[in-house]
Design goal:
By secondary structure, this protein is mainly alpha-helical. Helices cover about 65% and strands about 5% of the residues. The protein is built from six helices and four strands, in the order βαββααβααα. Helix 2 packs parallel to helix 6. The protein starts with 6 loop residues before the first strand and ends with a helix.
Length: about 170
């Protein structure tokens, strides 16, 4: 409770709405930002778990992808996030990108966004440079985690559907 803010220098969905260092107790469509964050994270996390359970067998890349997706979802939707909270998601996505090259672009984009985010926090907090990036630039970069979450969710869905089909074909063949 030391930082009761929607976003503490984290370029996520809350900073995309202009809520950097804004209270997470401020009502948004009838609920607080903190409550919305928990609802959004909980609903999407449940979807990740259900997609992962849909596979007949989970491979290491599947598990890393599910973990990376959950970590990105937490960074993207939960309030009180700092810029460094995205680092575990990027590390997990690196493992996935090795075996699934289609996710390498998401890995590079998340790494670049995290670098810019970290430099922004350093320049504003340590060097006391007010608004090192324009609000528009912050909002655009803050949209990247949302896009990366969607890419990861689609990859997980594709993997779950592929796993279900493979299991079905294995059962049908003599």
């Amino acid at each position: 409770n030391q930082y009761p803010y929607a976003s503490v220098n984290a370029f996520n969905v809350w900073s995309a709405t202009g809520a950097l260092w804004a209270s997470d107790q401020k009502p948004v469509a009838g609920l607080t930002a903190q409550t919305w964050g928990m609802i959004l994270f909980g609903a999407t996390a449940l979807g990740v778990v259900l997609l992962a359970l849909r596979r007949s067998t989970l491979t290491s890349p599947d598990l890393f992808l599910a973990a990376a997706t959950l970590s990105f979802l937490a960074f993207t939707f939960l309030t009180r996030a700092h810029e460094r909270h995205v680092f575990p998601a990027i590390a997990l996505l690196a493992f996935v990108a090795v075996s699934r090259p289609m996710l390498f672009g998401a890995y590079l984009a998340s790494t670049a966004a995290a670098l810019v985010n970290t430099l922004y926090a350093y320049r504003s907090l340590e060097l006391h440079i007010p608004e090192p990036l324009s609000p528009t630039a912050v909002r655009v970069i803050s949209g990247l985690p949302v896009i990366i979450c969607l890419v990861c969710l689609l990859a997980l869905r594709r993997s779950a559907i592929g796993g279900s089909r493979a299991a079905l074909h294995a059962k049908v063949k003599p």
